[in-house]
Structure formats: structure tokens, C-alpha cells
Amino acid sequence: GIRDTSVTGVQTCALPIWQNKMKLAICLAFAMFLVKGIDCKDEQEKDLNARVSDLERQVKDLECPYGQTKWRRSCYFFGQGLVNWYQAKFKCIFLGGHLVKIGSGSEFNMLRREANNAGLTGLVWIGANDIDSKGTWRWISDNSLVRSPKSVWLEGEPNNKGDCVALDLDKDGKWRSTWCKYKRRRAQFICEKKPSDLDKSVS
Asked: How much is the pTM?
């Protein structure tokens, strides 16, 4: 069997909101040792497995690196340099993420607010594009279709002139399709990282 003191040890590891990744890793290893290395009763083993899963979730939900903004379970980087869409794409990859995918109205509102707080102005690249198939807009992060309401686009957009999308912060963050590499069309950008990508960051 297993003594109650071991279960208490896992409970102790699971309680705090961890800010030290090493401590959390030690606790996770300890919990996995208990589950895999000791002959537990069914209910106790089930409880320990649940606590291990919770510790794994806490690892994924660690705070974002310095200079990035956390919202729900993603980290966002607001890039102030002026670049074309392809350059922005590779800057986000370098940071371990991708150009942002906007999945809801609340996320859109958050991005407009935080972009303004970060000092971004004018055009800001996001991950939507129709590079592969004209008129079929997809997100670069997962190749899923862009399913945005018409109201987020500027009047007359999207048009057939450009293949990449930027938020126009001078127009309340409305979406504008524009040239991806045209030398005069340079913009700031927003990167997004999912929890599983946090440890790929370049500090």
C-alpha cells in the first residue's frame, strides 16, 4: 500500500502558484515516481494521476517571458520594428511562435488595446493571408480558414490587390489586405505563442 504522507507530499507540491520552474519540475518528478514506482491502490493511483496531470498543466501555464503579454493561455509579443509580412513571420518563428491568429472578438479587442499600450501605430501584421489560393484566407499558424465577420474589415476589404492582412490601428484596428513584400508596405507586427511553445523562447 501507500502511506498518506506520500499523498500529502503531492498535495503540497500542487498547491502554490509556481514561479520557480525548477521547483515545479522537482515536484512533477516526485509525483511521477509515486505513481509509477509504488504499488498503489486503484483509488489512490487515480488520485495521484490526476495530481500529476495538474502539475503538467501548471508547467504549461508558466508566466510569459519578459516583454510579452499573457492573455488566457497564450503569450503575445508586440513588435515595433517596421518589416514586411515575411520578415514578421520569421521574427515570430525566431521567438518560438507565429504571427497572431485572432480567434474571437474578445481577443481582437485585447490586441487593439495592448497594441496601443505598447505604442504601436498604423499597420500591424497578423497571420491571415491568401498567398496559396487567391480569395481563400487562412491563418499561417495552422492553415485554418479565416472565419471573421465582415465588420472587422475596412470598407471594400478584402480586395484582390494584396495577399496579407494587417490591422490598421489608425482605423480602429480594422483589417486591411495589402501587399506582403511591397517596399513601401512595411508594418509592425504581433506574434503569438501557445503554452507548449514557451520553452522555445529566445531570451
From this structure: 0.68
